[in-house]
Design goal:
Length: 210
């Protein structure tokens, strides 16, 4: 059975998710944006085994603890798509810009592309390429349990910003309407910040989309 816990981290209150397979206790972080010690304690309390770190995009508030956690658990970092390489290579400058503690630039063990799959125990996550907020943004889809981890593409009653370098509003709206909404109104999603919602609720009520 698929399980998850959302842990908001840093003053950006970014939603880091710990996901795991109940049958195997294998687990992964999605977007560990900071506060590595807090996340380690959560893993210990859950009694799960971290096997990988998954990134939706390259912004600092979503990747800030990735390297420290990868070294601590001796696991690989997967994602985002290679179009976000410029962001991961620019992490020290992002730290200065947003007042974060210094983080070295890094590249993932493997970039992820649409159509690929990631396994967490007996759980399969499908990859969707959803650019707009960043050019290499991806989304993790658990089709069986009808839940998506969408990073900063879509929020409850809002959408991702596109005023950052290489953001594109047209691409963002296309990602939401042509990639996410067709998955079904009953799909729930974990956004990068703020409360969860469903694609159906956002399709019908989101003021940026109706």
């Amino acid at each position: 059975m698929f399980q998850y816990q959302i842990i908001p981290v840093t003053h950006f209150q970014e939603n880091c998710s710990i996901i795991w397979c109940d049958e195997t206790k294998e687990a992964a972080f999605i977007d560990p944006g900071g506060e590595a010690e807090l996340l380690k304690k959560a893993v210990e309390k859950l009694g799960v085994n971290i096997k990988q770190i998954l990134l939706t995009h390259g912004h600092l508030d979503h990747v800030g603890a990735a390297i420290e956690l990868a070294k601590h658990y001796n696991v690989e970092i997967l994602g985002p798509s290679q179009e976000d390489e410029f962001l991961l290579s620019n992490l020290p400058q992002q730290c200065m810009q947003f007042g974060f503690p210094y983080i070295d630039s890094f590249l993932p063990y493997r970039w992820l592309k649409e159509g690929e799959h990631v396994k967490v125990g007996n759980i399969t996550l499908d990859i969707l390429f959803c650019p707009g907020h960043t050019p290499g943004h991806i989304v993790f889809i658990n089709a069986k349990d009808k839940i998506a981890f969408v990073g900063d593409v879509l929020f409850k009653s809002s959408i991702g910003r596109t005023d950052f370098p290489r953001g594109n509003h047209t691409d963002l709206i296309s990602s939401i309407t042509n990639k996410l909404f067709p998955l079904g109104d009953d799909f729930i999603f974990v956004p990068g910040h703020g409360p969860m919602s469903s694609f159906g609720n956002e399709r019908m009520t989101n003021p940026f989309l109706v």
